Amino acid sequence: MKLKISNLSFSYGSERILDRFSLSVREGEFVSIIGPSGSGKSTLFYLIGGLFEPDEGDIYLDGRRINGQRGHIGYMPQQPSLLPWRTVEGNIRLGMELSGSTQMQDIRELLAKAKLEGLERKYPSQLSGGMQQRVAFLRTLVGDHSLLCLDEPFAALDALTRTEMQYWLQERLQEFHYTVLLVTHSIEEALLLSDRIIVVGQKPMQIKKEFSLPFHEIPWKQKRNTSQFMELRHEIEQILAVEGM
Amino acid sequence: MINWLQRFWITPVVLILGVLVWELAVAFFHIEAWILPSPSAIVLELSQSLEHLQEHVLTTLRIALMGMAMGVTIGVCFASMFHLLPPVKKAFYPLILLSQNIPMIALAPLLVVWFGFGDFPKLLVVAIICFFPVTISTLDGLAQTDSMLLTYFRMSGASRWQQFIKCEWPSALPSFFSGFKLSATYSVMGAVIAEWLGAEKGLGKMMIIASKSYATERLFVAILLVVGLSLGLFLLITILEKGLLRKYEGRVNETQNL
Questions:
Q1: Whole-prediction pTM value?
Q2: With contacts defined as CB-CB under 8 Å, which chain B residues touch A71?
Q3: What is the CATH number of domain B49-244?
Q4: B154 and A95: CB-CB below 8 Å?
Q5: What is the pLDDT of residues B151-181, one digit of tens each?
Q6: Rounded Cα gap, residues B256 and B251, in angstroms
Q7: Residue B166: its chain A contacts at CB < 8 A?
Q8: A15, A125, A189, B247: which sits with the fewest CB atoms below 10 Å from its CB?
Q9: Do A97 and B251 touch (CB under 8 A)?
Q10: B216-244 and B246-253 helices, crossing angle to 10°
């Protein structure tokens, strides 16, 4: 098991955010967590990232307990959070600097592979929102962490850019083999990208239902049009409607 | 340049008109030169004493620059320390605020008693005046670092020092420069006050002698030079700021469709 979360509890003041929450993610798996806003999805990431210490329970990464320890995961927030005074190249290098990754990767080569050639000298302010998020994703990649936690990475983008980004991300993930945990509001996004979807309910966060997706063999462009896709979307919508999303 | 003229033409026009009125008033009302010299008399005095003004200007400029360097360094150190060690801030921040309420004119003679008539007490006067705006503005800048950037840093396992050097300090740089510019304008004034206490040369010394001997046009020359020096330092730092913060401004000025 890549990531194993067992009986995790956490309170913010008197409010119980997580109550004996458990979740396991296999090596190389792409798991999406979808649920109403304010259900504690970001808090779960902060616990995995070591920003908060859980009240009870344990988090294991590759069999090692990482409760309250920072620097073990790659993290990408909703806002690109690029440093405005650094170039694209400098921002991506930050990912290596912070993780203390010794193996210096060729950033130009990485940009070219990600179809972003020629951007290395640009500043974030010169890029569109979608481009900024791509750079932020590459910054997360070069940190050399095997688990990536993506916290609604496309939520701030317009619908068209968002679709492009989902395709782009899926392409990148085929080149690099990572284990990914994605928090999202978008059912379609979860269906397109994931191997498994976990639908969660309001405070304290608990798992409503899990879906293993059968779309691996289906080409990207056709996924949306399969009857299974539409049925699953409908079913997840129903669960979330009950939760009042 | 043309743009600049279009925006600020009114200031020089008002200035020239004012000087004109002053010149005419002095002539018309027969005002004594030791009460209010005419602008032309001041300019004449300036041109006649250029040679020996030089050493006064250089002396004052040296004290102002060295004192400012000291003050700005102390300011940055204080701001960094307060930011990184909140208990230290709690203990010393109110004291620093309090220190600014002590009138320099009362403190300066004490410094002379303690440290003599050399350069050191003069530098100290300038440094005490200059460190304060830098401390306050830098501290503000550090505290206003984007919380999303900080979350990213923490989640990515950045050490406290990495967070400070790579994120908080660069974020605070524009605020630091606001304080630095204020310090620069105060530094010349500080040097002049320091020289009033006892100096052999310098614009402060020149002012004292001029006012005691009713050489009012010389006093005005000294005032002009103090204003000129302050403005010059301010401009110099503004240019430095523009150069260093060009990247930061990119977010407003440059937009590209990608």
A1: 0.84
A2: 156-158
A3: 1.10.3720.10
A4: no
A5: 999 999 899 999 999 999 999 999 999 999 9
A6: 11
A7: 83, 94, 97-98
A8: A15
A9: no
A10: 70
